């Protein structure tokens, strides 16, 4: 039985998508696949058993039915953190190893999903990624997602900490303008440093997209028009604080972008509606006038009304679009295909000893 631990340089880097892709690919090869997420941070109960919401969703995708308390032996709640900071909670690793041993019975491959960042998260309770990998005898696949830059220093530290137990790294969400530098400079550099780069995944707007209804909920707002179109998809956003002429020039270059605009800017609101944006986000808790509402219904463009100011909503939007979790199966299938097309799966199998 082979164990592969999927870690990352930061949270929200694509660990779940990588776990789904590998699990489905291994199953397609006829291998018996198990799954575990030793430390969970999104508590949820199923059939009275405590577990992690992400882990439960991922098991559904992989067609697994395992005891949630075995899949995620440690669930980080407020009470858990309080205890960890105020008293000796003991060694949690034996419980994780015992659960892993039970889940791996009869399996060819165990996919182990990490939490947070590989080297740091969980250190306070002795459950950082390196320690978990060693305890389970798993090899690590590290995902590094581009956010202004790639964390090559971090990847070198992973190599130093893991040695031959580093199965490889995958560079995720690489924008087109940065791709040449990655291919021509960074990947050769990492490989010279004995960091196996097993895939470079291009940025894809669908992977950061979110439904209007989900967006309204995450922003703490409400959809006030064209409710039947709240399943439309938002891929990006623009801020409508400029003059109409300048705004129009930007708008035509950014399709599928929600427009964040003050509730009192009916001029910009009307231009955005007529330009077929997926939704309007009106800030300042200001209700639109009747003309805007009527055009919204006629053009079937939802309007979300929120209390906060435009700047605060824009900052929230940045976080939402970069951290929106995989829950829609259309997006899951698209993401799995995206990863599968970029990943050197045969080389990963070789490094895991699954030839």
UniProtKB/TrEMBL annotation:
Top-level taxon in the UniProt lineage: Bacteria
Q: Which residues form the signal peptide?
A: none
* Domain named DRTGG: residues: 214-319
Subunit info?
Homohexamer.
* Name used for this protein in its record: DRTGG domain-containing protein
Q: Which organism is it from?
A: Humidesulfovibrio mexicanus
């Amino acid at each position: 039985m082979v164990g592969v631990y999927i870690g990352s340089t930061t949270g929200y880097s694509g660990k779940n998508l990588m776990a789904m892709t590998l699990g489905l690919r291994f199953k397609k090869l006829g291998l018996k696949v198990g799954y575990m997420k030793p430390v969970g941070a999104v508590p949820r109960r199923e059939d009275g058993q405590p577990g992690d919401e992400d882990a439960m969703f991922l098991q559904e995708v992989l067609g697994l039915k395992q005891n949630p308390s075995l899949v995620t032996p440690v669930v980080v709640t407020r009470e858990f953190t309080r205890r960890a900071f105020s008293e000796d909670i003991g060694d949690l690793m034996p419980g994780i190893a015992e659960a892993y041993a039970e889940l791996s019975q009869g399996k060819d491959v165990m996919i182990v999903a990490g939490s947070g960042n590989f080297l740091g998260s969980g250190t306070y309770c002795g459950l950082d990624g390196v320690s978990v990998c060693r305890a389970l005898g798993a090899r690590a696949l590290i995902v590094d997602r581009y956010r202004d830059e790639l964390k090559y220093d971090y990847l070198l530290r992973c190599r130093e900490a893991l040695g031959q137990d580093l199965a490889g790294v995958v560079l995720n969400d690489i924008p087109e303008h940065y791709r040449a530098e990655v291919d021509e400079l960074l990947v050769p550099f990492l490989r010279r440093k004995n960091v196996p780069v097993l895939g470079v995944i291009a940025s894809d707007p669908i992977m950061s997209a979110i439904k209007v209804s989900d967006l309204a909920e995450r922003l703490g707002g409400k959809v006030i028009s064209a409710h039947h179109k709240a399943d439309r998809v938002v891929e990006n956003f623009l801020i409508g604080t400029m003059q109409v002429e300048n705004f129009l020039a930007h708008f035509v270059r950014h399709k599928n972008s929600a427009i964040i605009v003050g509730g009192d800017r009916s001029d910009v609101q009307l231009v955005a509606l007529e330009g077929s944006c997926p939704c309007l986000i009106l800030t300042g808790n200001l209700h639109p006038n009747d003309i805007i509402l009527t055009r919204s219904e006629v053009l079937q463009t939802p309007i979300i009304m929120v209390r906060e100011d435009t700047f605060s909503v824009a900052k929230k939007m940045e976080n939402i679009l970069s951290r929106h979790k995989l829950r829609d199966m259309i997006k899951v299938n698209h993401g799995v295909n995206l990863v599968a097309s970029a990943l050197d799966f045969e080389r990963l199998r070789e490094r895991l000893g699954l030839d």
